[in-house]
Amino acid sequence: MHYSELEARMRAGECFHDLRLDPGAWAIVRVDGRNFSRYTERRYGKPFDERFSALMAGTARALLEELGGRYAYTESDEVSVVLAPAFAMFGRGLQKLVSISAAVAASAFTHEAGEPVQFDSRVWLGAGVDDVIDYLSWRQADAARCALNGWSYWTLRGTGQSQREAARALERTGVAAKNELLSHHGVDFNGLPAWQRRGVGLWWENHEHPGHDPIRGVDVVTRRRRVRVERELPMKDDYRRLLARLLTERT
Ligand SMILES: Nc1nc2c(ncn2[C@@H]2O[C@H](COP(=O)(O)OP(=O)(O)OP(=O)(O)O)[C@@H](O)[C@H]2O)c(=O)[nH]1
Ligand SMILES: [Mg+2]
Questions:
Q1: In this predicted model, what pLDDT tens digit does every residue of 24-83 receive, in sequence order?
Q2: Residue 151 near ligand 1, beta carbon < 6 Å
Q3: How far is the CA of 141 from the centre of ligand 2 (A)?
Q4: What is the whole-number distance in angstroms between the Cα of residue 119 and the centre of ligand 1?
Q5: What is the pLDDT of residue 247?
Q6: Of 143, 147, 177, 212, which cross-links 75 as Cys (Cβ 3.0–4.6 Å)?
Q7: Ligand 2 mean position to 32 CA, how many Å?
Q8: What are the structural domains, with CATH classification, of the chain?
Q9: Looking at ligand 1, which atom is closest to the CA of residue 49?
Q10: How far apart are CA 88 and CA 67, in angstroms?
């Protein structure tokens, strides 16, 4: 068999190679830490740890920069990165996007933490900006739900309840009752840091950078792009308005 025949036959086996993001669609790539329940167990404070959150924000920044994303959002052990319809890396190929985003996340986190971790990755497609805003509101609602559950669980554990006792007690407890449970134990849920309840958002912003032009011998101001890390995100409709502005404005 000629090499070119073998090549063609073997390439045909790469049957997922042609999968691409639909032209004109918005895409979101979401990475999630693999087995992080176990990884974080003995290393980080519960339910929230500022050091862990900083590592995830650093991972989100690396993804935003490497993929040229429009917006990134992180909560718990996950990061979502919004890719505008003009996203053109990897010929919009799905396998490259999924594998490289997982690799970027794993290497960024590992480099900072000093020990190896892995992330999985998946892609979500939306037709327009409104879908993207719905997606991001969904992840923020998930952050709020997890924060309430996490705080309730660890507050009960703090009173001496076992894993099973705390989990069973919370199965039968609604949102209002969890808030009451927390305030009964001196935790004001709405007074907790915003990043714990609402997640962290990252986006590009322009800023003016004062400098000196040595050739002309004059001071100059240049405009530069930098990543803004927002740990005080608004929620609900205010968040949707912020997102609408970030996703539609020309940068
Ligand atoms: N201690 C601590 N743990 C955290 C923090 N943020 C997230 N986690 C952990 O990250 C886990 C994320 O949950 P999942 O992604 O559903 O579970 P996982 O174990 O990573 O499992 P897979 O994603 O399916 O591999 C939570 O269960 C928490 O245990 C934090 O600030 N402190
Ligand atoms: Mg995980």
A1: 999 999 999 999 999 999 999 999 999 999 999 999 999 999 999 999 999 999 999 999
A2: no
A3: 17
A4: 12
A5: 97
A6: 143
A7: 5
A8: 3-198 (3.30.70.3000)
A9: 31
A10: 10
